[in-house]
Design goal:
With about 475 residues, this protein is of the alpha/beta class. The protein is built from 17 helices and 18 strands. It is flat, with a radius of gyration of 33 Å.
């Protein structure tokens, strides 16, 4: 006879409960999240890996659809970031296999081909979302976090099924604890202090560092015993990190003028040489006449929290850089350019000086990209970026605003001849050959120039007029420059 009992009524052994709890309980153990990046462009693959590494995500890279299917056949992945246009096996063919054999894996499409038909077909085949290259890093991270959250909630549903099996153990533990308390098996004043993560100090003179009292749990934080502090074998001030001693001494002076003083976090070196971050609060105990009798302090080990804060700051810094720079050339992107241009216009108005905007579009770039592929095109763009950096002034801004289009922002221009000389130098530099594999590649540049305040006093006006001048250069068969004229 078939057993129709549901999981709520099933009897689980202790080992089975532990095993399921490890798999499903998001509190006891966070499940790792595995991502497969599939793209035939190596630079795009690596940039995605670098972005996701900031968020501690595990990534495997596949260079095409065929390799992606090989990985799927041998490993498990929660999410695939999938390009559509690839040689051998394209993205749609990969999605078809996922539908049939790997339905538990989620898919986000990252593609330069964003036609409605492609998007409709991808969604019909089960894609979670469709982002056009170049993608917005913040938008991609948000999508991935949403998928992770959905999976976490599904895991919690299973975890709740285990709750009935484990609740009796929790109740038993609480009863035992209550019995200990009621029977006064703990001497609270002593045990609470020494089992606390914080360490209590009492100083007669905080400046010399000799302690009158220190809680026994100091050994857990600093590695030294309370006895070593009492006999003067170790002085607290001496274990502060050399780079933070000056800060500590300056703040000690402030304790005299404050009832309660919270120090800035600082580092100490433990007995075994480990560097830890400390949070320290100090206060004074006065006698009846108001004289300082003792200083008391509480220190807490905040190493984990401080390192997490530093790591988060690093993540924010890197993400901020990614959001304002082109992934391929590492140059500022349009967003950062427009901000700098706005500031440059204000500065020019204040100083009564001129600025120039050089709009550069490469000639003969598309045939290289179409005939030799993305790798050759990427090499051309990277080389162009290097040559621009080499030829412009250090105070100038170079930006890639998309495709094969670049902008040079020149501030504090003395005269138009300086701008003309720059344009001529750039035209010459960019038409030099570029060697890639066995090929010798050639591009030239069409440059359009607008000036402020002559051609406008807003970023939009200057960009538009430089763009018009660039097309006027194109009409002259390129490899030249043109100032804007109405």
């Amino acid at each position: 006879m078939t057993d129709n009992k549901g999981i709520d009524d099933a009897v689980l052994t202790a080992d089975e409960i532990d095993m399921l709890a490890d798999i499903t309980n998001p509190i006891s153990k966070e499940k790792q999240f595995f991502i497969l990046i599939v793209d035939d462009d190596p630079i795009m693959r690596e940039s995605l890996r670098e972005l996701l590494a900031i968020y501690d995500m595990n990534c495997t890279l596949a260079e095409d659809g065929q390799q992606a299917l090989e990985y799927l056949n041998s490993d498990y992945f929660d999410l695939i970031l999938l390009d559509l246009e690839m040689p051998k096996i394209n993205g749609f063919q990969v999605m078809k296999e996922i539908q049939i054999h790997y339905s538990e894996t989620d898919v986000i499409i990252l593609s330069g081909e964003d036609s409605f038909e492609n998007a409709r077909k991808a969604w019909h085949m089960g894609a979670q979302d469709f982002l056009k290259k170049p993608y917005n890093p913040s938008e991609l991270i948000e999508l991935i976090h949403n998928i992770k959250e959905k999976r976490r909630l599904n895991s919690e549903k299973i975890a709740k099924m285990l709750d009935k099996s484990t609740r009796s153990d929790v109740d038993k533990t609480l009863m035992e604890l209550e019995d200990i308390i009621h029977n006064e098996k703990l001497t609270f004043a002593h045990e609470i202090i020494n089992s606390s993560p914080s360490v209590a100090f009492l100083w007669k003179s905080i400046s010399d560092g000799h302690v009158q009292f220190v809680s026994e749990n100091v050994i857990n934080v600093l590695g030294y015993t309370a006895e070593e502090f009492y006999i003067g074998k170790v002085i607290y001030k001496d274990i502060i990190h050399p780079e933070d001693v000056e800060q500590f001494i300056e703040e000690i002076e402030k304790v005299n003028t404050s009832t309660n003083f919270k120090h800035k976090p600082y580092r100490v070196i433990t007995k075994c040489g480990v560097v830890k971050w400390i949070e320290h609060s100090s206060s004074m105990l006065r006698d009846k006449q108001g004289n300082i009798e003792y200083y008391q302090g509480i220190i807490i080990d905040i190493t984990e929290r401080e390192l997490s804060r530093q790591k988060m700051f690093q993540k924010q810094t890197i993400l901020e850089h990614i959001a304002h720079h082109d992934v391929l050339t590492k140059l500022p992107n349009r967003l950062l350019l427009m901000d700098r241009l706005q500031q440059a216009i204000k500065n020019a108005q204040r100083t009564k000086k001129h600025l120039a905007l050089l709009y550069i579009d490469l000639d003969k770039f598309k045939p290289i990209n179409d005939s030799l592929g993305h790798a050759a095109g990427d090499e051309v763009l990277i080389t162009v970026a290097k040559r621009l950096r080499k030829n412009v002034r250090t105070v100038d801004t170079i930006a890639r605003i998309g495709g094969d289009e670049f902008i040079i922002l020149m501030e504090s221009i003395s005269n138009v001849q300086d701008v003309k000389a720059m344009a001529e130098k750039l035209n010459y530099s960019l038409r030099q050959s570029i060697h890639w594999n066995a090929h010798e590649l050639f591009v030239t540049s069409s440059i359009g120039i607008s000036l402020a305040p002559d051609d406008g006093n807003t970023p939009e006006e200057l960009m538009k007029k430089a763009d018009i001048a660039m097309y006027q250069s194109k009409e002259k068969d390129g490899n030249t420059f043109q100032f804007y004229y109405a």
